[in-house]
């Protein structure tokens, strides 16, 4: 008798290996697409240069004259790369250098050697200093960005070109955690004081509200901290580490209204969300979430594996990348065995299945402006992905759980 071994697409990694019987249990550098198991595309370095520092954010955009740029931010530098893969350093003058890695103080290993009794537990009283991540967005054809360590808002005028560095925006608030540009062309500055401040419409020079402009601010009533923002259908989502809000444009005099969408669904890091066809998908502290008009938990077949494997001290490094060609969102995270990102999990939202694997990337952005998705490594090199079949020293595979015949 011949028995066909037909496994459904995707990996199931919750519970024990016995609970994965009849399913795939492990995978690396493969995807299931339209019912077929196939290897992911490989990668190749874009250009021959590397940036200084560890890339933690990337953004591709095109100017009004169709000049294509890619922005790359590290803990110490800000770069733009043109279509010929030439890097230009546009780091602002006076920029405060941040942290390549997160660190924590308190608990086990914190304090003076010999302080306290051996074998007694330590309370979770330490403060985590996050790894530095740039928040990047486009304002018209220009680039705006900030980091929480520096706290200032910067703008790079794309029409001036590579001979000029990004400059601090005059009049903008300081002590910022993040920035996002709304669909209506307002710059939202997310403050460490939990206040969202915005400039006048399409005017980055006007921040003081009066009867002749639409500049304004709004205090977010949250117990958490403002993390990041993203445009979505119907408004602009504001993420904290405990809740999510929706900012909706009202026009003068209030300009924006803010609604708390849900609690206990905060984002795990400022880069851990993706907008897939106006549906927001993000990674929380212990699960995945989706917003398509309502906030709801996203069932995950590999959640036990991911969150038990995650190095939570370094969770500020986690980032997500959308791959619209295959209907996928991938989250890259540092596993418990190391401090730098070395693994990923991926959800196919068209076919609703998951995959896992190992890949050392620290930032990325989807295709569209450029022909291929681009990602960066901790070595500062920029790579084009989904091209060819080069995997360096790694190889694609899929492993099943137990089989019953």
Summarize the structure.
By secondary structure, the protein is an all-beta fold.
Explain what the structure shows.
The protein is mainly beta and 405 residues long. The longest helix is centred in the last third of the chain and has 7 residues, at 303-309. The chain has 1 helix and 34 strands. The strands form 10 sheets. The protein has a 4-stranded antiparallel sheet, with no helix packed on it.
Percent of residues in β-strands: 35-45%
Radius of gyration: 22 Å
Q: Looking across the biggest beta sheet, what order are the strands in?
A: 4-33-32-31
Total strands: 34
Taking all residues together, what is the mean pLDDT? 93
Major β-sheet, in short?
4 strands, antiparallel
User: What distance separates the N and C termini?
Assistant: 11 Å
Low-pLDDT runs:
109-116
Number of helices: 1
Shape: globular
- Estimate percent helicity: under 10%
What structural category do the secondary elements indicate? mainly beta
